[in-house]
What does this fold into?
Amino acid sequence: MYAIARLYGYVEEVGFRAWLSSDIAKALGVRVGEGVRLESKMGSSAARVVDVRDDVKAGVYLTLDVYMAVSGFRTVLVKRLPRVFEADAVALGVETQSPVEVDDVLSLVHLMVAYRVPVFSGFTGYLQTERSQWVKVVVKEVSPREPAYLSKETKILIR
It folds into this structure.
């Protein structure tokens, strides 16, 4: 089940987190700590719910990394992720405005593991390297099942 939410804005943090309004959280049955899928015409991403807010009506606040992936429109679709699996292998695409070093890409993958963000085919997220360069990460394939968390044992394929 989906809910239509107003995109109120972003919090200048990273970590694939979301602050949901209480009415959307109640309608979807989402609790703090669970994952949600966010979709718009610009792309789709995922976040973990860190707080349910009573001062926001039918809306959502996102961290900057998720906001950049789904922004452009005032509304997003929010879907609860009831069960998330562990990925055995994930194919990633990386897009930047200038060349990025392999060590930077490796550190970004480590960040995604640390954030415990659920990923799926078509997932988009923005991560910032140590050189303050934003890198767009697109998940092209997840096996064996999705949505899934990345772990240290997950095979990462860069395409």
